[in-house]
């Protein structure tokens, strides 16, 4: 069955930043935050201190993954231009999103460059308290109210086919704001919104997850990816029973046509092997064949690989 990994990260250079400080490469796929916290960022065999486009292609090919959506995050550090280069080199395999820090002095110029010159038609907002903007910017801000962020939305909404991916962290974090996504979907009906990680589900709080999904249900331009839910739920036993439970709920409320499979590799592939992340949905049998086709391929193709996005990539070649 055809598959698009709807949530993948390239790491040309480890440049992470969050509340723990800067992330520094140690080799052997490991890295250390400024506060002394060590992590295993890259799986064995994928790269010593990076995860390059060639390594990504090898992983995708070995696992029979047709395409991938390249997103940004504070964990790895923004890899915007490397993502642009990857998409230019392999337009049939990759599409990419860029990220910008709205607290940067020249953030609007950065947005304009990536949209107008480099042809990006997707942006990633990593605002989580644990791993994103709320970990190193205070006071808290809301995506649907902050004047700086509104200026970004006003720019990107002028370009047909734009997609906004959002990671706002877990329920207990100040950055968690599912209602902001609802307001943005109302305000910008021509934008598609993808909430990453199924809004950080908790099997002990399925009522809260259901209420969140019901809030989005009336808005056809809100999708959610199911990347890294195994990490969030603390699962390492294949085929991930808790993950099956939350995806079943999401299918019942939103429908399979609004769910996007992804892995959040390379980091997530250090907790569960990529083969398991790639095949657990088929193994679980919680989706029909038609639903699998949508979740594994069709939805990401529709949301990210739009003709307008592909054309923008083509026109930006060589910049």
Structure explained in plain terms:
It comes from Fructobacillus pseudoficulneus. Keywords: Hydrolase, Lyase. This is Amidohydrolase family protein. The strands form 3 sheets. The chain has a 5-stranded parallel beta sheet with strand order 8-9-10-11-12. The protein has a 4-stranded antiparallel beta sheet with strand order 2-3-4-5, with no helix packed on it. A 3-stranded parallel beta sheet has the order 1-6-7. By secondary structure, it is α/β, with parallel strands linked by helices. It is 36% helix and 15% strand. The protein contains 11 helices and 12 strands. The model has no long low-confidence stretch (mean pLDDT 97). Helix 3 runs parallel beside helix 4 and helix 6 packs parallel to helix 8 (241-253). Helix 6 (206-216) links the parallel strand 10 and strand 11 (222-225). The protein starts with a strand and ends with a helix. The chain has a single domain, classed as Alpha-Beta Barrel (TIM Barrel), CATH 3.20.20.140.
Topology record:
Layout: E1 4-8, E2 17-18, E3 21-27, E4 30-33, E5 38-40, H1 53-62, E6 67-70, H2 80-89, E7 94-96, H3 107-117, E8 122-126, H4 147-156, E9 163-167, H5 178-187, E10 192-195, H6 206-216, E11 222-225, H7 229-233, H8 241-253, E12 259-260, H9 274-284, H10 289-303, H11 307-315
Parallel strand pairs: 1-6, 6-7, 8-9, 9-10, 10-11, 11-12
Antiparallel strand pairs: 2-3, 3-4, 4-5
């Amino acid at each position: 069955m055809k598959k698009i990994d709807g949530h993948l990260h390239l790491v040309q250079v480890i440049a992470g930043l969050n509340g723990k400080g800067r992330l520094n490469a140690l080799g052997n796929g490991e890295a250390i935050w400024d506060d002394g916290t060590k992590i295993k960022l890259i799986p064995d065999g994928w790269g010593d201190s990076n995860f390059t486009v060639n390594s990504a292609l090898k992983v995708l090919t070995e696992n029979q993954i047709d395409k991938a959506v390249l997103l940004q995050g504070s964990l790895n550090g923004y890899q915007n231009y490397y993502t642009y280069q990857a998409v230019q080199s392999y337009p049939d395999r990759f599409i990419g999103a860029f990220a910008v820090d709205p607290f940067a002095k020249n953030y609007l110029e950065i947005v304009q460059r990536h949209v107008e010159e480099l042809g990006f038609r997707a942006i990633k907002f990593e605002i989580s308290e644990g791993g994103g903007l709320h970990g190193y910017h205070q006071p808290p801000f809301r995506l649907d109210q902050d004047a700086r962020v509104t200026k970004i939305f006003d720019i990107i909404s002028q370009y047909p086919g734009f997609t906004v991916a959002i990671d706002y962290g877990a329920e207990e974090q100040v950055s968690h704001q599912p209602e902001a996504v609802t307001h943005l979907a109302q305000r910008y009906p021509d934008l598609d919104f993808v909430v990453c990680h199924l809004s950080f589900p908790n099997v002990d709080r399925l009522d809260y997850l259901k209420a969140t999904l019901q809030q989005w249900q009336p808005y056809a331009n809100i999708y959610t990816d199911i990347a890294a839910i195994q990490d969030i739920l603390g699962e390492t036993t294949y085929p991930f029973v808790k993950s099956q439970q939350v995806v079943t709920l999401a299918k019942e409320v939103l429908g399979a046509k609004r769910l996007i499979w992804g892995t959040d590799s390379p980091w997530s592939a250090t907790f569960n092997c990529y083969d398991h992340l790639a095949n657990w949905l088929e193994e679980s049998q919680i989706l029909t064949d038609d639903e699998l086709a949508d979740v594994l391929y069709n939805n990401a193709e529709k949301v990210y690989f739009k003709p307008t996005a592909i054309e923008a990539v083509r026109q930006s070649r060589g910049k």
